[in-house]
Automatic annotation (TrEMBL):
Pathway where this protein functions: Purine metabolism; purine nucleoside salvage
UniProt EC number: 2.4.2.1
Name by which UniProt lists this protein: Purine nucleoside phosphorylase
TM spans (from-to): none
GO cellular component: cytoplasm
Protein task: The purine nucleoside phosphorylases catalyze the phosphorolytic breakdown of the N-glycosidic bond in the beta-(deoxy)ribonucleoside molecules, with the formation of the corresponding free purine bases and pentose-1-phosphate.
GO biological process: nucleoside metabolic process
InterPro entries tied to this protein: Nucleoside_phosphorylase_d, Nucleoside_phosphorylase_sf, Pur_Nuc_Pase_Ino/Guo-sp, Purine_phosphorylase
GO molecular function (one): purine-nucleoside phosphorylase activity
Length: 270
């Protein structure tokens, strides 16, 4: 794997991806951050050696490099999921490549469903902790110890200093920012009523199909990470309605400006 990571990183360096300070992973329906970026280079995933290719129609599939708030950043416009048929090593491959490019911080966004019924769709949750329900680990492979500590401590997977700054930014900009626990499942099917009840019992405030693998690998690599969930639906098992993907995308778009403010203002302070 090390050779594949180096090949991808070398390819990107040759095309201008030089010494990014911050890596950003954009989730479902959350691609407009790019409009705030002074783009210097962009490459489709299918042109990068050994890179997976996004198969979800609302994930763009581009790696973009440029300046944002005076910092060099590399942005994943579209991410990978286990439900697309990828392994967790595939899903987290881009994080390892961004690490080799030189990122010092990682910001992650996702669209998720609100398990905590005090949270409403169109609002944002800062992830304080997570529950891995994907049934596997991106560190469970032979030779992982050559890339970092095998038994990675996960007592505080989300960087406290970055999260505190995010809360201060939200307060200063009148953004309603919840804080809670994110549960990551495989998908792609949505949850049953019984599954939503189970998730609430075990302490989840929101549920989605991403983020946790990337966060685990960021911790493995020693990269401070912060993540936010844009809440696109309310998962009330007693009043559950059939899923509407168009509405989920619309809710992501509604909350996206606040997410962009949080990310851009945080980058300014890093």
């Amino acid at each position: 794997m090390t050779k594949y990571i180096e090949q991808a990183a070398d390819y990107l360096k040759q095309r201008g991806f030089e010494n990014p300070e911050v890596g950003i992973i954009l989730g479902t329906g959350l691609g407009k951050l790019i409009e705030n970026l002074e783009v210097e280079a962009e490459i489709s995933y299918n042109h990068i050696p050994n890179f997976p290719t996004a198969t979800v129609e609302f994930h763009k599939g581009k790696l973009i490099y440029g300046s944002l708030e005076g910092k060099k950043v590399v942005v994943m416009q579209g991410r990978f999921h286990v439900y697309e048929g990828y392994s967790l090593s595939d899903v987290t491959f881009p994080v390892r490549v961004m690490h080799l490019l030189g990122i010092k911080h990682l910001l992650v966004s996702n669209a998720s469903g609100a398990i905590n019924l005090n949270f409403k769709k169109g609002e944002i949750m800062l992830i304080d902790d997570h529950i891995n329900l994907q049934g596997d680990s991106p560190l469970a492979f032979r030779g992982v110890e050559k890339m970092g500590e095998r038994f990675v401590d996960m007592s505080a997977p989300y960087n406290a200093e970055m999260n505190k700054k995010m809360e201060q930014i939200a307060s200063a900009n009148n953004i309603k920012l919840h804080k809670g626990v994110y549960a990551s499942v495989v998908g792609p099917q949505l949850e049953t009523r019984a599954e939503y009840r189970y998730l609430k019992i075990i302490g989840a405030d929101a549920v989605g199909m991403s983020t946790v693998p990337e966060v685990i690998v960021a911790n493995h690599l020693g990269i401070p990470v912060s993540a936010v969930s844009v809440l696109t639906d309310e998962c009330d098992p007693d009043n559950l309605e059939p899923v509407n993907i168009e509405e989920i995308i619309a809710m992501a778009a509604k909350a996206e400006p606040d997410m962009i403010t949080l990310f851009t203002e945080l980058i300014k302070q890093l």
